[in-house]
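call fold(seq) -> tokens
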Amino acid sequence: MQCGGAFWNIQKEVIVCQKSWIYAVWRFQPSATARLLALMLSLVVVTELGWAQPAEQKLPSPNPPLSLEAVFAKIDRSHPLLQGASAERLVARGKLLQALGAFEPSIVNDLELERFISSSTTDLETVGFNDTFLEARHPWGMRAMAGIRNSIGDATIPDLGFNDGQQQVLLGASIPLLRGLLVNPQSAALERAELATPRAEVEIARTRQDLFLAAAGEYWEWVAASHLLRVRKRALDVSKTRLAQIRERAEAGAAAPLDIVEADQEVQLRTENLIAARRNLEQAGYKLSMFLWENRLPVRPADGESPAFPARPPVPLTDTLEADRAKAREARPEVRAIALEAELNKIDLSVASNNLLPWLDAEAEPARSPEKFVLGLGYRFGVTLKFPFLQREVRGEMTATQAQANRLALALRYRQQQVSVDVDNARSAMLRARERIAAAAQALRLARRLERGERFRFDLGATSVLFVNLRERNTVDSEVHWIHAQADYHKAHALYQWATGAWAQGSVVKTPTRP
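ret:
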């Protein structure tokens, strides 16, 4: 029994005095009446003064308790995996710029010269042009150009000439009328690049969710390990106190020397348990440090930073369960990732469908070769029709893309059902953990009651130190089960938050009080 506070020390002295008197009556009064009176008096002492342990007094810690929200804030701020996932935004921006490069306008300056001998004069002549124009491509598949041509030498400009035939307006366009209109490989690449940013956000959300779930599990393991260490230390202190008492009684002839061996063996056993508990706490701290990064290094939390178990969050009601399932089917990154894959496949399917059409292109542009320009040829107009017969490549692409679409539809349906099962499973874990807490708490109360009774019987000489040790071990085991049940409940609540996608976007709910 660990005693704390002046008032409890006074109670302890009174109880010791009463128990010493009762022991004397029990030993030196052989009559049944006297022993019955001693037993009744002992019950009065237990009722009036009580055997329950006082509330554990905690010394103020130099470090404030580390909360789970503070762990989440550190992950958001400095965890390398989350920072690496955030780099996906830059990758997505680069892909978008790369896709936009196919449609950026270009300024072209083209100088073309031809030297020839005129058949009429047999003189060497140099004729050509210098074109300056702007050309661009539209995502719909159209190409256009506009600019000015300056003639060099004697040339005849038949169309759109000005400045006494020395200059010409340049206008040109190429328009696909069937294949490539509105849908083409370049526009499809741009649409895929536009989806790169949502895909990056999904990857960041998935990484954040997984990190938060893993951090919550390690955090509650660390909190439970710190509580278990205190339990083992308290049990060791009790056994050391009893060993000192038994030695005093053995010196006085009131206890057998074998009881000293029994008590000493219990001290060594509890010392070993304390060492193992300290190792478990250190291991839990090292695991938790992988989520607490400062200056690009993991930081192990101090032992004094472990808090008490907070108030348990309520179990989600059955009425809100369907709403949580619907929320999870929209917010979970796994579902969103498959939906984005389906969008990408839809783009590929539209391109493959467009490729089934024949080529029918119309174009109009000025003569681009000097010899035609010298001959006086102006703008040219043309229509090109190309019709493949078998379309094996395109039909194969269509078949593969349609099969991929069917696979993604089934995967999406499966993932949505899996998300619903995850929500139900997390809620079931919370319910069972709550029941375990209630059962473990009742078992702990009964174990403490048995321990107090057995210790009182030992003080009367009616039992041995072995049975006292067994009762105390049972109490420690019951408290260990109760601590594990508490930790499992909070881990189940974290699992429910993960299952509903509560951590997929935004920051932690509470503002951490500790940097």
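Residues 1-30, 32-61, 507-515 have pLDDT under 50 and may be disordered.
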